[in-house]
Design brief:
Layout: E1 25-29, E2 34-38
The structure holds iron/sulfur cluster (SF4).
Iron/sulfur cluster binds near residues 18, 38 and 58.
Length: about 80
């Protein structure tokens, strides 16, 4: 049986593009890698559960800190 080697470094998440600023993105980490999951995929099959990164065009992107309903916009 082979001896276990040194622990592998965790691969960082590649540049995520739009997902990096999207409120529907969820970062998941495993011992060997990091994944980005799109929560929109839970309700809409048009969105990939694990989108190929970087995402450069997405109609579902919503900024993480966008004003929600009932929040007045500055004029
Ligand atoms: S909605 Fe689009 S931008 Fe937002 S997490 Fe999903 S794939 Fe990324």
């Amino acid at each position: 049986m082979a001896e276990p080697g040194p622990p592998r470094p965790v691969r960082p998440l590649p540049p995520a593009g739009l997902c990096a600023t999207c409120r529907h993105a969820e970062r998941l980490a495993s011992p060997r890698s990091t994944f980005l999951r799109c929560r929109r995929a839970d309700a809409d099959p048009a969105y990939p559960r694990y989108p190929p990164l970087p995402v450069t065009n997405c109609p579902g992107h919503e900024a993480e800190h966008a004003a929600g309903p009932g929040v007045e916009s500055a004029r």
